[in-house]
Specification:
By secondary structure, the chain is α+β, with helices and mostly antiparallel strands. The chain has a domain of 43 residues. Helices cover 35% and strands 15% of the residues. The chain is built from three helices and two strands.
Length: 66
Amino acid sequence: MTVELPLAESAAPARDADEAGGAEAKAAHVRPLRVLLVEDNDYNVDVAKEMLEYMGHGVTVSTRSE
């Protein structure tokens, strides 16, 4: 089976000044938060914690223990 969809070509969306700076520019516009991170996978904890701290947030980590 073959499907053909006639689509018009479009230009790339315009980027504003905030997007051009990436995460650093966006982080500057967000007030620091206190985040409770609950995750049982150590790798996910490391990645999420690093990202949140990089953006200026305070992070408290809790893992599920039984």
